[in-house]
DNA sequence: GTCTATGTAAACACAC
DNA sequence: GGTGTGTTTACATAGA
């Protein structure tokens, strides 16, 4: 018999998102991110409803228990009073109604099990409602079955009494046997009905079989084994059975199980929860002609019963596995194709390459092909299909340099969506982001309200957004400084507060322009990638309200970072294509913040006539009030100070 | 093989 | 003198 309890792993709400949460990566929510109050109150209400539903369930199950006990007592009284069928074989207790009824009530749950369920508190109200409805349907079926059994048994007993009075006539005996057969058929049909119902429950995730019940002899056989083990066992069973047929030896490895099963078979409790177990003699009447042959070849003894049970468990395990795989596949497909309409519940490490390189080729953009070079044996691998156990902070430490560039390839900057969608991942996992320093610096600057950051603020952004940059500070800070000085796109602006760094979008887009304009295939890829990114952008904007906003509220206390991020995302996604079509000459002012407020070039650069003619404009101190300190919250973060 | 972009390390200068 | 910032150089590597 099986203990049918509700699995906590399959009853999580928000099926798709949570499934992907399990499939992809389990994000540890930072302690600093507090849930808003309404969520707590809603949570409490859900818990109240859950407890209420559990109480109703408990009542229903208790009523079921009482009814079953009454029925059992009634049957025992009938047996004691001698109303037994003289034809009944001990090996064929098919007409023992209590056993059958008990077996047909797989949903009956003991109070201890209910206690476990109540303690688990894993059912959502919707699931409980569905479960209750199905439970009520089962109860109805049960009642009908009980009435049906009673009637059948009364008729049979009546006929048997008549036979005893009238003498045993072969013809009537045959008639009784036929009736018994018909009764068994009806019984089996009802069992199959209930089994189908149970299977549907299991497939819906509302019911599962849980290991860990030592009092159940067959349970380890079915639950503690993987399908291959069950298949192996089944092979042993069949081989043992064939050996028995040929040699007459009836002792095999299965005999232990068989004995175990048979010893527990009379126990009514051991059959209650087993939806697939059948009492002896009740398995062979589905297809009469075929089953008669089976009956003749395989006696309906404990061994056959055990074999059937093993096979049932094999099939059941395979079906469950198939159902799980199907559900997983469906969730993955849903996640991939319906992303634009389904806000993601948890940040997931999507493909972290930039939107352009995503479409360069499917194989290249695949997570397995992400930065992983000989110099970086533990280079970041974007997890997509792995579960939470795959990504561990210890296993993802990356020390080596990044030799492959994704964000700056083909002169397309890093997409804010890339960072925004994966920021939660990078915040917690020490995975090196597959973006260049230049792209990250630019992103940090563009995310700031004034589109300018001090060096220390850039540092803080790195450490805040990426757990990877909480290590080896000297190395990457040096790289940041090196990049700031090296690239002309980063402009140092003198301020009363000190020096701030800004981004010259024109210069940033200038890098390697010839590869974009000169390669039609790349342009085509970029166009297709833009088509891909359009739903991505929509999904991001839709999900930002649910997910990303809290992430930015910590950084945007007092400054509208979110709005800038959203605009930056649009700028990135749209600007990539704009830049693809017209390289650098037609940069719109709205897309390039540095054109609106272009700073003084303090950096000593080789005199370039084109640069000298750039739209330079002084950033006066009036633009930066002394109390302007929108990044103080960055500096206040202890994690940043620890890294210094 | 060459060139470019990038990452890393290091040296150096300067200001506080 | 220590530290942070900024610049520059050198070298290695990947990719076009």
Give a structural overview.
InterPro entries: FH_FOXP1_P2, Fork_head_dom, FOXP, FOXP-CC, TF_fork_head_CS_2, WH-like_DNA-bd_sf, WH_DNA-bd_sf. Residues 357-389, 578-644 are annotated as: Disordered. One of its GO terms (molecular function) is DNA-binding transcription repressor activity, RNA polymerase II-specific. It comes from Ailuropoda melanoleuca (Giant panda). With 644 residues, the protein is mainly α. Among the domains are: 124-163; 416-511, Winged helix-like DNA-binding domain superfamily/Winged helix DNA-binding domain (Arc Repressor Mutant, subunit A, Orthogonal Bundle). Helix content is 59%, strand content 2%. The strands form 2 sheets. Strands 3-5-4 form a 3-stranded antiparallel sheet. Mean pLDDT is 49; it is low at 1-64, 80-111, 117-125, 166-172, 203-231, 236-288, 338-414 and 513-644. The protein binds a DNA duplex (16 and 16 nucleotides) through residues 373-375, 400-405, 408-409, 436-438, 455-456, 474-476, 478-479, 481-486, 492, 498-499, 511-512, 515, 603-604.
Distance between the termini: 61 Å
Q: What is the highest CATH level, the class of one domain?
A: Mainly Alpha
Q: Could you tell me the radius of gyration in angstroms?
A: 35 Å
CATH topology term of one domain: Arc Repressor Mutant, subunit A
Helix amount? 55-70%
Strand content: under 5%
* Sheet having the most strands: 3 strands, antiparallel
Structural class: mainly alpha
Using the alpha-carbon principal axes, give the shape: elongated
Low-confidence stretches: 1-64, 80-111, 117-125, 166-172, 203-231, 236-288, 338-414, 513-644
Strand order of the largest sheet: 3-5-4
CATH architecture of one domain: Orthogonal Bundle
What's the CATH H-level superfamily name of one domain? Winged helix-like DNA-binding domain superfamily/Winged helix DNA-binding domain
Mean pLDDT metric = 49
Q: How many β-strand stretches? A: 5
Number of helices: 26
């Amino acid at each position: 018999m099986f203990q049918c309890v509700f699995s906590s792993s399959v009853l999580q709400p928000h099926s798709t998102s949570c499934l992907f949460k399990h499939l992809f990566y389990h994000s540890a929510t930072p302690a600093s991110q507090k849930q808003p109050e309404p969520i707590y109150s809603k949570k409490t209400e859900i818990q109240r409803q859950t407890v209420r539903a559990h109480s109703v369930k408990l009542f229903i199950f208790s009523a079921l228990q009482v009814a079953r006990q009454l029925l059992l007592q009634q049957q025992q009284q009938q047996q004691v009073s001698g109303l037994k069928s003289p034809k009944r074989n001990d090996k064929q207790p098919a007409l023992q109604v209590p056993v059958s009824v008990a077996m047909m009530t797989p949903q009956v749950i003991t109070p201890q099990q209910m206690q476990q369920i109540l303690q688990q508190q894993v059912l959502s109200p919707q699931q409980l409602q569905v479960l209750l409805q199905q439970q009520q349907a089962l109860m109805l079926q049960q009642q009908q079955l009980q009435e049906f059994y009673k009637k059948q048994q009364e008729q049979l007993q009546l006929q048997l009494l008549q036979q005893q009075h009238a003498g045993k006539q072969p013809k009537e005996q045959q008639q009784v046997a036929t009736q018994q057969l018909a009764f068994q058929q009806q019984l089996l049909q009802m069992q199959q009905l209930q089994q189908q119902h149970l299977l549907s429950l299991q497939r819906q995730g509302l019911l599962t079989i849980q290991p860990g019940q030592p009092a159940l002899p067959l349970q380890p056989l079915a639950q503690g084994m993987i399908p291959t083990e069950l298949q192996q066992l089944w092979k042993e069973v069949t081989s043992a059975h064939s050996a028995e047929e040929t040699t007459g030896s009836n002792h095999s490895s299965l005999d232990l199980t068989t004995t175990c099963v048979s010893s527990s078979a009379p126990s009514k409790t051991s059959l209650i929860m087993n939806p697939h177990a059948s009492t002896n003699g009740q398995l062979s009447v589905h297809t009469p002609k075929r089953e008669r042959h089976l009956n003749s070849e395989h006696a309906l003894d404990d061994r056959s019963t055990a074999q059937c049970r093993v096979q049932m468990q094999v099939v059941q395990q395979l079906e469950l596995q198939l159902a799980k795989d199907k559900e997983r596949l469906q969730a993955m497909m849903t996640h991939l194709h319906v992303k634009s309409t389904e806000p993601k519940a948890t940040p997931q490490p999507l493909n972290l390459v930039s939107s352009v390189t995503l479409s360069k080729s499917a194989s290249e953009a695949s997570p397995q092909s992400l930065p992983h070079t000989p110099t970086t044996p533990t280079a970041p691998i974007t997890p997509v299909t792995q579960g939470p156990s795959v990504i561990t902070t210890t296993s993802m430490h990356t020390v080596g340099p990044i030799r492959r560039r994704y964000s700056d390839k083909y002169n397309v900057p890093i997409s804010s969506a890339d960072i925004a969608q994966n920021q939660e991942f990078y915040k917690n996992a020490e995975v090196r982001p597959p973006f260049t320093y230049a792209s990250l610096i630019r992103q940090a600057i563009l995310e700031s309200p004034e589109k300018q950051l001090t060096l220390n603020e850039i540092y803080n952004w790195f450490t805040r957004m990426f757990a990877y940059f909480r290590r080896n500070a000297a190395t990457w800070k040096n790289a940041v400084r090196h990049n700031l000085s090296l690239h002309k796109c980063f402009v140092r602006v003198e301020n009363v507060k000190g020096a701030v760094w800004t981004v010259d979008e024109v210069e940033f887009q200038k890098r390697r322009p010839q590869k974009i304009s000169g390669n039609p295939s790349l342009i085509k890829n970029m166009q297709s990638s833009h088509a891909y990114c359009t739903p991505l952008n929509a999904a991001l904007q839709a999900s930002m309200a649910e997910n990303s906003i809290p992430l930015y509220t910590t950084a945007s206390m007092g400054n509208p970072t979110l709005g800038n991020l959203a605009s930056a995302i649009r700028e990135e996604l749209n600007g990539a294509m704009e830049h693809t079509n017209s390289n650098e000459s037609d940069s719109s002012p709205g897309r390039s913040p540095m054109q609106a407020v272009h700073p003084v070039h303090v950096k000593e650069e080789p005199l370039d006539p084109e640069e000298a003619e750039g739209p330079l404009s002084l950033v006066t101190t009036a633009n930066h009030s002394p109390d302007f300190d929108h990044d103080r919250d960055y500096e206040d973060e202890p994690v940043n100070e620890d890294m210094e």
